[in-house]
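Anyone opening a protein record will find just a pair of labelled lines. A complete record is shown below as an example.
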Amino acid sequence: MTSDRAVTLNVLALYALAAVLATAFGAQFMLGELPCPLCLLQRIMFALLAIGPILNIRYGPRPSHYALSLLAAIVGAVVATRQVLLHIMPGDAGYGTALFGYHFYTLALLAFVTAIALISLVLLFDRQFASQPAPRTAGLFATVAVGLIIALTAGNFASALLECGFKACADDPVVYELLK
């Protein structure tokens, strides 16, 4: 895989991450369900997962960039697994609305495990790491992807601040603390 193809894959990964963040953020407002602290932590891990692709787009593919995303995906998988295990008992209805028959934290676990597998697979292609003359400027497609991630992360940060205020978030939030 060439460096250009790797960058294109990284841009597509950013769009996938933006879709995940937008879905969670949209469900929060459309369904009126505030995210729990573990849900917020998973959103943070999805935003951190985007750092590797952003660095790859800006500076070219590097194993260290992929490593940052891999670490975020591993931590995200651990957090999502923790939440799945909290609701694994028979008769437990789970937390929040289900999408495609699965709760968001279960889908997050699947997304993080998929990210771990895909990043590991992409790391097998050494040609993308060949030295290059100078970093290219990002095209519009990549710039929009990075902008979406930044906007969704900022929106989620603002929402979490409104929800929790400047203290620990409630385990089962029902109101925005700074708006009451």
Remarks:
- The mean pLDDT is 90.
- The longest strand covers residues 98-99.
- The chain is about 65% helix and 0% strand.
- The beta strands are 98-99, 102-103.
